[in-house]
What does this fold into?
Amino acid sequence: MSRPKYTCNEYRQEMILLSLRLRLNEKNLPEAEREKIQKEIQQLESSMEMV
Amino acid sequence: MEIVCDNCNAKLSVADDKLPKDKAAAIRCPKCRHKIAIDPQRRSGNGKAGGTAAPDPFHFDEGTEDYDASERPFDFLEEEGNTALICENDPEIVKQINIVLGIMDYSVTTAETIRDALKKMKYHTYNMILVNDTFDGSDPDANGLLLYLERLEMDVRRNIFVGLLTRRYATMDNMSAFLKSVNITINLKDIASIDRILARGINEYELFYAAYKDSAKKLGIM
It folds into this structure.
């Protein structure tokens, strides 16, 4: 059985997603930025076929 | 020189000047990947070299692709030698990098075009690739070679140190390097210091992967 291809692109997307989620968990995050980050996470998850 | 594979009897043609003189060498058969040892004494004889199996004079191997040694410049190197590919159109910069990599004990080839680079990479996994983001007239954001490197499987990619020669990013700009999927960015205005930049970049790259490579070796997956 062949393994799914795992490339630099996938690695980079994972790292961006991780950093966005970490940022989202920060206390005292302004609401406008929270919404922006949530939107970015949604877009990223969609491009990674996670949703 | 004609070489016959010990394993599958494929006939290969290799230019004599591509092989080190008076030294044992080995190439990998493009058909079956068997390693063929080439004895320098046999080479100087009748122009044929290869293993013990005699070629069948009536065997016509229609499936064997032509062996073009210019596409496989390091087939003769033993595995411990470090190799580098330079993808840069400015001959002055190539010259400077060549000198530095020579001192660092790399065997170096240069590519003229993206197509040429891809052909060279098809047959050899380089330890280092230095590529200008405008190489071969590329749009820096759509450089075919960088796109190819981005899409390489991590198993292969993590064994290659990729340096981006650029005028857009600062030297050792880690965030830009991350976004471009390269190990290091080198601004061309710093080219005179490329020896120190590369030494530091490679040192960081080796440290970064040291734990991973140690573990992979212990697990027998590399």
Summary: The interface with chain A takes residues 149-154, 157, 178-179, 181 of chain B (CB under 8 Å). The longest strand of chain B covers residues 82-87.
